[in-house]
Amino acid sequence: MQIYLDHNSTTPVDSRVVEAMLPFFQEAFANPSSAHTGGAIASRAIESARFLVAELVGTEPEGITFCSSATEAINTIIASTKGKIVTTVVEHAATLSAVERMERTGTQIVRLSVDRDGQLDLDELGEAIEGAALVSILWANNETGAISPIERIANLCASRSVPLHVDAVQAAGKLPIDLREVPIDFLSISAHKMNGPKGIAALITGGKARVKPLLVGGHQEGGRRAGTENVPGIVGFGAAASLALKEMAYHTDAVMPLRNRLETSLVDRLHSCWVNASNSPRLANTSNIGFADIDGDNLAAALDARGIYVSTGSACHANATEPSHVVRAMTHSYDAARSSVRFSLGHSTTLAEIDYVIDAVVLAVAEMR
Ligand code: PLP
User: CA 238 to CA 33: how far, in whole Å?
Assistant: First the structure.
């Protein structure tokens, strides 16, 4: 038995997405840059997918640049910034490492702190963005699910003419995004978080904005990202984006009640058990729960032994011994971070699975305490 509650790390590829991708491995495998009919077929498939991805976030297809990962998209935008960058301490490692590298070569980086619920202070943001060349902020946190007030942040940045990049990797497909309504300059999203394939993502640049390519070579993606296109991946991304848009309500209608049941049952049945960022608006599928006097890694291992897959930090930190930088920044407590575990649900999660997980967690915590 396997109960997968690690959907914020990655999601299974939807079988309808696999079906859409299959022809592009063998029948329609041509290089989209080739002048022959085979190339034109592949190229048309890319443009159809670009349209579908654009639709998911309410923008024009011309603003979409396909790349290998959201990590690449984020690195591209940060590396092409000249001047002060404002971000937060709870960003994904892709942002934190990219700004750290810029800092080493002399760029001024401002990292804003967050409160107990993972929210930044908009007055502090307002002061920090004075003279900034870029603000880079998560739409929804991958570890806690905390949702940032992106519309207010975007309006603030726009009112001072400071470009804004939003890491929407966890938000896309789970929350409505309409770039026609919100003044966001750059957005990063990734297919594998929305039941699409791994290795394909998009940097969205709202049409006008020029970005310095990270990779140079051929003229793919309008010269914005060199390298032969991952055609099956792009087609899969388009299919996943289209399904995510159509089926978005599933998150609030079906996933949220299961997530809430998990939280209320654990908090009821266990003493000294709390939900991180509980007062914040949160993604419907994400629950980050702290268990006093428990080592989160040990609890995750005990659950693994019972066929339950969870996570104690972002996937990129899974082999590191440091506990979640996000929970630590919110609570200012190493122990609180050390004792926290993330449960992230998905389309396949069932009521029976959640009830099994609740019993397993209660038992494991009792044994460990
Ligand atoms: N940003 C957030 C919020 C994420 O959750 C992730 C992946 O975990 C990334 C960025 C990086 O995405 P990718 O795996 O496509 O590089």
Answer: 19
> How far is the C-alpha of 232 from the C-alpha of 249, rounded, in Å?
27
Residues touching ligand 1 (Cβ under 6 Å) are 69-71, 92, 94, 138, 142, 167, 169-170, 190, 201, 314-315
Beta strands in 90-182 (DSSP E): 109-112, 134-138, 164-167
Q: Is there a contact between 168 and 57 (Cβ–Cβ < 8 Å)?
A: yes
pLDDT of residue 169: 98
82-130 pLDDT, tens digit each: 999 999 999 999 999 999 999 999 999 999 999 999 999 999 999 999 9
pLDDT at 316 over 70: no
CATH superfamily label, 3-11+248-368:
Aspartate Aminotransferase, domain 1 (3.90.1150.10)
H-helix or E-strand spanning residue 3: strand 3-4
Taking the domain 15-246, which CATH number applies? 3.40.640.10
- How far is 51 from 258, CA to CA, in rounded Å? 33
pTM: predicted TM-score of the whole model, two decimal places: 0.97
Active site residue 316: yes
